[in-house]
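Lab notebook, design round three. We kept the backbone fixed and only want residue identities now. Task for the bench partner: fill in a sequence for the structure below.
Input structure tokens:
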């Protein structure tokens, strides 16, 4: 639960700090004002380029929406009152709706058929808003600006944004919060914070430094998301959630003169995988990885490849790490893996549905999963991480030859 809640609070720390700093920002010397006005364009441009580089459509289109919003609001002072009202109404209503729609789409690339549909959808909205402004349709404008509830705090919250837009924004925020509590996701969290910051920025004076700062922060939040996602794809193993081989190599390059490396391998995994299928094999990998991830003694676990894992102990000798590795081995051995029977339903039947007469007990079977571990330390014969890993591999094969499910050095 703490992890899930962190996805709600973490992206909002930066905007909260910015809001508290707005009064002091207004007192900044005039010479710094041009830099602040350029901040949103620099942040948005950098974000768009990164999204293109990593082909992340969700963040790319979110940045396009923020950029379009900032450009549209910049037009407001130079237009008549009717056009200005329509612009504010359009951007404050369409921004949360578009961010909500984007949350339903999977990553399918930017310049693809799916991306073309999204480009066309955004272009259609631009044409619709332009047509309504050109037509000067006051009926639509008055209807959308209707105050549905006369609650004092809600009326005071409007700040030039229609009550309809606030309702839509609140619904989108509630939807995103529910999704985050069910499945924590950095992109969803950042988009939620971006929506909050952008809606707050709409209420500010367009030419003010506070508006420029808030729009810039909205872009920075998405840029940070791109960087963290890219790091995760490069350094984290998607299946097990452990650091991947690249992260392990980076750790090896930062080691000092004293360290130990352990290599762990799941016993008979190929036979297990061939017998029960790759889906069950993936579940075993995740279970074992979860236990290895709980290693104590300052160990840094990683998935080396296939069914093989590694644990690096910076500043520790073999004597100091043996007990910690033995705990890992015991935890895996004492966590039997339950195989689901083929006739067992994948979902629990709903109440009120007709019960199926049990003719036999579901075929469930518990299998024991064990690991063999080899460990080596830096010494006179092994002076580099590469040679230490080779020595740990040899120790691993000794553990297998002695009957598996043990730690050897």
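Proposed sequence:
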């Amino acid at each position: 639960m703490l992890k899930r809640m962190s996805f709600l609070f973490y992206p909002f720390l930066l905007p909260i700090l910015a809001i508290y700093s707005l009064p002091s920002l207004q007192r900044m010397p005039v010479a710094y004002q041009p830099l602040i006005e350029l901040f949103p364009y620099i942040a948005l441009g950098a974000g768009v380029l990164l999204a293109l580089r990593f082909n992340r459509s969700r963040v790319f289109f979110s940045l396009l929406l923020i950029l379009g919003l900032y450009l549209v609001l910049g037009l407001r002072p130079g237009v008549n009152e009717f056009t200005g009202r329509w612009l504010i109404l359009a951007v404050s209503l369409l921004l949360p709706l578009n961010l909500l729609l984007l949350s339903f789409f999977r990553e399918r690339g930017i310049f693809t058929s799916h991306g073309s549909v999204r480009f066309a959808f955004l272009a259609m909205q631009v044409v619709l808003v332009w047509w309504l402004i050109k037509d000067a349709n006051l009926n639509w404008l008055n209807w959308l600006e209707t105050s549905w509830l006369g609650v004092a705090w809600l009326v005071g919250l409007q700040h030039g944004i229609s009550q309809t837009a606030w309702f839509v924004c609140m619904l989108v925020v509630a939807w995103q919060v529910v999704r985050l509590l069910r499945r924590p996701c950095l992109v969803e969290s950042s988009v939620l914070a971006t929506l909050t910051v952008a809606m707050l920025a709409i209420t500010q004076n367009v030419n003010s430094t506070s508006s420029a700062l808030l729009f810039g922060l909205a872009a920075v939040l998405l840029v940070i998301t791109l960087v963290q996602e890219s790091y995760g794809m490069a350094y984290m193993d998607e299946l097990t959630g452990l650091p991947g081989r690249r992260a392990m190599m980076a750790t090896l390059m930062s080691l000092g003169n004293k360290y130990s490396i352990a290599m762990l391998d799941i016993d008979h995994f190929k036979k297990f995988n061939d017998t029960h299928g790759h889906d069950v094999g993936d579940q075993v990998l995740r279970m074992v990885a979860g236990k290895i991830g709980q290693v104590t003694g300052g160990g840094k676990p990683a998935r080396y490849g296939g069914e093989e894992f590694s644990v690096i102990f910076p500043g520790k000798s073999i004597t100091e790490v043996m007990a910690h590795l033995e705990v890992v081995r015991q935890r895996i051995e004492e966590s039997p893996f339950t195989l689901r029977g083929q006739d067992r339903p994948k979902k629990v039947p709903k109440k009120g549905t007709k019960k199926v007469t049990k003719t036999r007990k579901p075929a469930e079977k518990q299998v024991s999963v064990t690991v063999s571990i080899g460990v080596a330390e830096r010494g006179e014969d092994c002076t580099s991480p590469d040679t230490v890993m080779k020595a740990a591999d040899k120790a691993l094969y000794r553990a297998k030859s002695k009957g598996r499910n043990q730690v050897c050095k």
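Keep this in mind before ordering anything: The radius of gyration is 28 Å.
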